[in-house]
Automatic annotation (TrEMBL):
Residues annotated as transmembrane: 51-69
Keywords: Membrane, Transmembrane, Transmembrane helix
One Pfam family matching this protein: SHOCT
Keyword Transmembrane helix found: yes
Domain annotation SHOCT: ranges: 103-130
Protein name as annotated: SHOCT domain-containing protein
Biased composition (Acidic residues): 92-102
Compositional bias annotation for Basic and acidic residues: 80-91, 136-155
Stretch list, region Disordered: 74-102, 135-162
Protein's UniProt keywords contain Flavoprotein: no
Record-linked InterPro entries: SHOCT
Length: 162
């Protein structure tokens, strides 16, 4: 536990810090403007009396308000960037799926061309490839094939018993 956490009696003090706004030039410029306006008021260059009100209003209202608005703006920009990145990743994943499909099709064609597959085997594998574009489709096809095989075996057993 840090010294500050012990001083404040807990970790809630960490919530007061926001590292993303520590070096934000807009918040820094606003703070500098408040200090400059307060000093100018104190010297009499700017006719605002009492001069200490510039510091109170500036640092208690204006700077936190600018920091909150800036944080909201940065969060919105980050969320938009995340959405754009997610969309690009989805597009890349879809392209990768197309590449996998093309690779599988090329392998089947090569095997057929070399004579490793008959025309019937080639057509059956091509149909299976077109039916199973996604892993979910492949699982469904396997489940269906197992159910059909079990039904045929059960039908064969009942016919042999008769």
């Amino acid at each position: 536990m840090s010294d500050r956490s012990q001083w404040w009696g807990g970790d809630w003090g960490d919530d007061w810090e926001d590292a993303s706004l520590d070096d934000d030039p807009i918040v820094e410029a606003t703070s500098l403007l408040v200090v400059g306006l307060g000093l100018a008021s104190m010297v009499g260059i700017v006719p605002i009396q009492p001069f200490w009100m510039v510091f109170v209003i500036g640092f208690a209202v204006v700077v936190p308000l600018v920091a909150l608005l800036r944080k909201h703006q940065l969060d919105s920009a980050n969320a938009e960037a995340d959405r754009t990145t997610d969309a690009a990743e989805r597009t890349a994943d879809e392209d990768e799926g197309d590449t996998e499909f093309d690779d599988a099709l090329a392998r089947i064609r090569d095997r057929y061309a070399r004579g490793e597959l008959s025309e019937e085997q080639f057509e059956r594998k091509l149909e299976l490839l077109l039916e199973t574009e996604t892993p979910e489709d492949a699982r469904e096809r396997v489940r269906r094939a197992r159910a059909e095989r079990a039904a045929r075996e059960a039908q064969t057993e009942t016919e042999s018993e008769s």
